[in-house]
Amino acid sequence: MKFNITDNVVTRALSRICDFVILNILWLVCSIPIVTIGASTTALYSVMQKIVRNEEGYIARSFFKAFKQNFKQATIVWLLIAALGLILSVDLNMARSLEGTIRIVFQVIFGFFSFWLFAIFLYVFPLLARYENSTKATLKNAVILSIAKLPFTFLMMVVVVVPVAASLLTVRTILLSVPIWMGIGVSIVTWLNAYILKRVFKIFETN
C-alpha cells in the first residue's frame, strides 16, 4: 500500500490549525478600528461555516471577500448592538446605586435585556454571513432564533463565556490566556459555535 502524506491525520490537523491561526490573526487585525468588529466577525463566521460544511477554499481570500461584501450591513448592526450594550451597561450601573427592592427589580430587568442582547449578538453575524437578507429581517431572525432555539443559545453562550471567564480568574490565567486568544482562541470558539449553528440553520434550508 502506498502511503500518501496528504491523507495523514496529523498533517491535516496541522493544516487546520494553521488555517485557524490565520483566521484569528485576520480577525484581530481587521477588528482593531473597533467600528469594524461587526464586519470582521461576519467574515470569520463566513469562513468557519464553510469549513464545517467542508466547502472552504482559500482561507484569506474568502475572509476578505466576506469582509468586503458584508461591511456596510455588518457595521450598522454592530454599531446598533454596541450602542444598546453601552446603554444597558449604564443602566445596570445606575441600578446598583439604588437601594432595597427597587434595586433588585431594575438589576433583574436590565440583566435580562443584557442577556438577550448577547444572545442576539451570537446569532446576527452568522446570519449575515450565511444569508442575504435585509438588516431588519436579519435582526428579526436573530431575535426569533435566540428564543426559539434557546437550548442552542445557552450552549453557544457556554462556549463563549466559560473560556473567557476561565481566562479572567487570576492575573496568571490572564497572562497565560492572552497569547492563546491572540493566536487561535477566537477561531476555536467561532468554529465550535459554527457547528452548533449548522444544526440551528437547518430550519432555513430547503430540501
UniProtKB/TrEMBL annotation:
Q: Which UniProt keywords apply?
A: Membrane, Transmembrane, Transmembrane helix
Q: Which Pfam families match?
A: DUF624
Q: Can you tell me where the transmembrane regions are?
A: 20-45, 74-92, 104-129, 150-168, 174-197
Domain of life according to the entry: Bacteria
Family matches, as InterPro entries: DUF624
Q: What is this protein called?
A: DUF624 domain-containing protein
